[in-house]
Amino acid sequence: MTLFSLARKNIQRNLSNYFLYIASMVFSIVIYFTFVTLKYNDDLSALKQSSQQIKGLMSASSVVLLFFIVIFMAYSNSFFMKKRKKEVALYSLLGVRKQKIGLMLFFENLVIGLVSLVLGIVLGFFMSQGLLMILVRLMGYEVVGSLTFSMDALMNTTGIFTLLFLFTSLQGYRVIYQFKLIDLFHAEKQGEQIPRASLVAALLGTALIAFGYYTAASDMFTSEIWRFFTVLGTPLMVIGVTIAGTYLLFHTVSVFVLTALKRATSWSWKGLNLIGVSQLLYRIRANAKSLSIIAILSATTITAGGGVFGMYYNAEATVRQMLPNTFMWKGDTVEFSQKDVLYNEALSVKNLRVDNEFSFFEYTLLKESDYNRLAKLQGKDQELHIADGSTVLLDAAYDDRFSHDFTGEDFKLQNGDSFHVERMFTESVLNFIPAGTVLVVNDQEFTATNDAEEVIMQVVGLDNDLKQQDVSQDIYKQLSSEQQESFSSVPQSYEDSLATVGALLFVGSFLGLVFLAATGSIIYFKILTEAEEDQAKYAILNKIGVNSKQILKTVAGQVAVIFSAPLIVGIVHSAFALLAFSQLFGMNITKPVILWMVAYSAIYFIYYIFTVRSFYKIVRQGNN
């Protein structure tokens, strides 16, 4: 039997063990190939100014993805090598030279890698059209690209992944030269060193995580911690203490929890609880580093995806907050299609200079009657009745963390007059881009204010305004260069917002799926490796009368803890990170974040079900 045929038979025999590894690798290659294809795709030129931005984003994302794949492959390959060491030892006892065994392992890893590469490229080619359409839709465009095969993407993907597979194959080749024969036989029993539980370490881990949560939830503009570590240094500090606290959490805190459960005889002596918690006590302590990495990776994935999805979800609301009118510009009216027009008003406003002790500010002065008319057209309920000498301030960009509340203060004009700020609204009836902050006065005061330049504003409201891109371009082309600078358009601003956030959502979603697939696979590998070690223990339990239902319940409980522990920690980490994100950008992202977490957990749960079935299958084989 040749080495090639032996390697082929080994792959066929271990295909079930390699399935998730191959599936995760194929999925990673599909996403990488798709990103590189989109980078070289000529159809992105149809996306105007966004094309270079998207290509740059795809390039950066492919580098991040590649970096993660390298870590995933090295980590997964080490598990497979540990699993195969006893087999390598048997070959040595049968007289096969180490060089031959090394070549066999080299061919096995290389074949698996090349098969994954071919499958990934083929699937990536057929999926690239669909993924391109998803990207275009997320960005709010109607462009549909054609299915093309990029030779540049093929050469890029093939070259990089061939080098990676050669590296992992050489890693397998070298393994037989690094251990003695007796070490290879006992390799599966050589777990990570079991750390001792420490009260000091437990308190330190809890304190570090609590400090990270407190800092993340603090207002970055008023917190002393943020001021001390600076805006750039504080996030890095929070990430550092959270990672350290997470490791100590799994390393020590979990030991105290499980030990307490073990000592609670009223619970531990029921059924197989004592056996289950004892095995968990060893598993979590021995796998503290792995579980910490998975928890941090889950937190990163959920935070990034939830944050971007929150921005995408709030894109329309953000645009409408700043632009209550579909179109607005300074100057005369122009001709455009009157279809779907709800109102088309020409307003007379004034550019007003307001002085204070240190500097001056420019405001737009608006008549009370014009405000009430626009507010009614826009569906706003409030109607103003402003006394002489008073004003109502409209500031759509107001943020109570760093904006000044002028309510109750006086605005002094250049001629010595002043306006008393009666009230202040954070919603305006004029678009922020051409109008800025607005002062509303009664009509008599407006007429009496002579030391201000009078300007004509065109205000247009359309039905189905987000789809009025053609009208927006038609108006823009007819405006002078000076008028174009003041032109604001809801459909154009919304499109620009989606072009950026949609691309980030696309990249974040698929990178998140790759990270999820890889982390799920890592847990799967670790648990199945441990299942084979425990096969004999479950066989003894079966012989003394423990039925299959009880064993399945114990298996499901153990696997649930291993899966849920890093997931729950990751979700809690991401919840505080996203709280800081929502405070920073001043938007409510609760609903999109919950949806993102549910979707992430649902896919994660699929890995759990698959792992429980595989674990139980191994246990049953030991009972036969």
Protein architecture, described:
The chain is of the alpha+beta class. The protein has 3 domains: 1-190, no CATH class; 200-324 and 491-624, no CATH class; 341-462, no CATH class. The protein is 68% helix and 10% strand. The chain has 21 helices and 9 strands. The chain has a 6-stranded mixed β-barrel with strand order 2-3-7-4-6-5. Strand 5 and strand 6 (418-425) form a beta hairpin. The chain is elongated, with a radius of gyration of 32 Å.
Short structural description:
The chain is α+β, with helices and mostly antiparallel strands and 624 residues long. The protein folds into three domains: 190 residues, no CATH class; 259 residues, no CATH class; 122 residues, no CATH class.
Number of strands: 9
Shape: elongated
Q: Which secondary-structure class do the elements indicate?
A: alpha+beta
Task: Give me the Rg, rounded.
Answer: 32 Å
Which short descriptors sum up this protein?
624 residues; alpha+beta; 3 domains; 6-stranded mixed beta barrel; 9 strands
Write the layout of secondary structure elements.
Elements: H1 3-13, H2 15-40, H3 50-93, H4 98-138, H5 151-175, H6 181-185, H7 199-217, H8 224-263, H9 265-268, H10 273-286, H11 288-313, H12 315-322, E1 327-330, E2 341-355, E3 360-367, H13 368-377, E4 390-394, E5 410-413, E6 418-425, H14 432-435, E7 438-441, H15 443-448, E8 453-462, H16 469-478, H17 481-486, E9 488-489, H18 490-533, H19 535-543, H20 548-585, H21 590-623
Helix pairs in contact: 1-4, 2-3, 2-4, 2-5, 2-18, 3-5, 3-18, 4-5, 4-18, 7-8, 8-10, 8-11, 10-20, 11-18, 11-20, 11-21, 12-18, 18-21, 19-21, 20-21
